[in-house]
Write a structure and sequence with these properties.
globular; Isopropylmalate Dehydrogenase; 11 helices
Length: about 325
């Protein structure tokens, strides 16, 4: 029995967390849970965004299932996602986007995995006010961080039978920072002769993704581009409600849906828990419970294929709880 830490988060976070935990229990996942409320609501109630006990739990279990947390825009505290990634050196953000035949989109053949460097670039959040009309932001790219995310992408390609890794960059303009990232990519690619490698400028990548997404396999890139491009890939497969992710380092792993806390629909019980559920499946695979993960994935596919119990974002009218029950009913 494996103990994991669970953060419930804000907005729709508690609703989708409860649904996913119910499905995990119904699937007989051999898990025990240490559950904590975190985020803006917790801060207003108890004066801490993340309680000390929650940090201590994650440091003990080393596996975190985290639902969305509200981040203020343009003011207030920094993203807790960024805080957690930096605090525990979760340097690899892996976001798989795969078409599902039951979800109609113009792109039926998408199967793309984005590797996003998770600890530096503009996301270090260092800004300077030069005068009342000018602000400077620092973009940090290091050899260490670049090497390990690029190598992680190639290792994943080898382990999962992937054929190509594409480096996404803006080295035509940022010749030193992105130029170094690209140079390191080319150096490491030579060690993986069995994997095809290429590179694309980020703006061209976005155009190519919506014209020929089938030409992409594994992509690796610095932090900011990874955030933007992976959201684009979610649009190809039906939206953020279908895009899971994992954040892994050498010692810790955090699993979360890519979408936000959606405060506008919080409490309405119409949130789609699929992305968070698939993130939980990635967690199960990470800890070796591949059969349980496969059972849940099969049940989700069946519910989507039936097209009878879908949440509003997928064109249906089902509640979060009704969707949860439909998935449980299809578990083997």
């Amino acid at each position: 029995m494996k103990t994991i830490t669970v953060f419930k988060g804000d907005g729709i976070g508690p609703e989708i967390t409860d649904a996913v935990l119910d499905i995990l229990k119904a699937a007989k996942a051999p898990l025990e849970y240490e559950i904590f409320n975190v985020g803006a609501a917790e801060y207003e109630k108890n004066g801490a965004l993340i309680p000390d006990a929650a940090f201590a739990s994650f440091e003990k279990t080393r596996v975190l299932l985290k639902s969305p947390i509200t981040t203020p825009v343009g003011k207030g505290f920094r993203s807790l996602n960024v805080t957690l990634r930096n605090k525990y050196d979760l340097y690899a953000n892996i976001r798989p986007a795969k078409s599902n035949a039951a979800v109609p989109t113009p792109f039926p053949n998408v199967d793309i995995v984005t590797f996003r460097e998770n600890t530096e670039d503009l996301y270090i959040g260092v800004e300077y006010k030069m005068n009342d009309d000018t602000v400077q932001a620092i973009k940090l790219i290091t050899r260490k961080a670049s090497e390990r995310i690029i190598r992680a992408a190639f290792d994943y390609a080898v382990a999962n039978g992937r054929k190509k890794v594409t480096c996404v960059h803006k080295a035509n303009i940022l010749k030193m920072s992105d130029g170094m990232f690209l140079d390191i990519f080319r150096e490491i690619a030579k060690e993986y002769q069995q994997i095809e490698s290429d590179d694309k400028i980020v703006d061209n990548t976005c155009m190519q993704l919506v014209m020929y997404p089938e030409n992409f396999d594994v992509m690796v890139m610095p932090n900011l581009y990874g955030d933007i491009v992976s959201d684009l890939t979610s649009g190809l497969i039906g939206g953020l409600g279908l895009l899971p992710s994992m954040n892994v380092g050498d010692d810790f792993a955090m699993f979360e849906a890519v979408h936000g806390s959606a405060p506008d629909i919080a409490g309405k019980h119409i949130a789609n828990p699929t992305a968070f559920l698939w993130s939980a499946c990635m967690m199960l695979e990470y800890i070796g419970e591949t059969d349980v993960a496969a059972n849940i994935r099969s049940a989700v596919d069946a519910v989507l294929a039936e097209n009878q119990c879908l949440t509003p974002d997928l064109g249906g009218k089902a509640t979060t709880e009704a969707y949860r029950d439909a998935v449980i009913a299809h578990l083997k």
